Input
Amino acid sequence: MNKFSQLSFTVILFGLISITGCATIPKDALSLSPESLAQRQMQTRKYETKDEAKILAACAGLLQDMGFNIDESETKLGVITSSKMRSAVSAGQQVAAVFVAFLGGGYMPTDKEQKMRASVITRPVGEHGEHITVRVTFQRIVWNTQGQVTTSESLTDPKIYQEFFDKLSKSIFLEAQEI
Output
């Protein structure tokens, strides 16, 4: 490659980089969709207290009662992350794998284990921080018999969130009554 070709290539490359850097952000890029707003409402509750530490303690206790291990907890930031490992073996997948093998299709990997994750974030709200909001999210990651991730998803079943917040409300009430 001669010097003129190298110079031309460099000029074209810089031109392309500068053109792509001028892309504009769509107006609605930072707005939440109605589905996102509904999901956020499902994941969030507001409690009438200023004691964020007690709310976090109640959340940690509830998560442990639900079988989760606390992975990280930072009271000053209002964050708890937790997880638990569970079997992901499905009878339907096992039958399908046997059927495929029987027909000569060879080995078919099936789901083996899953990690359930729960994250809690709290923050004071209100003019003087007189309320605490709690947002919880649940996710799962599934690995197959070959160690590959087959599923990574947020759980969106409203029953899970309703159950969590029902138990949390009872826990906060009992703690307030010092029972």
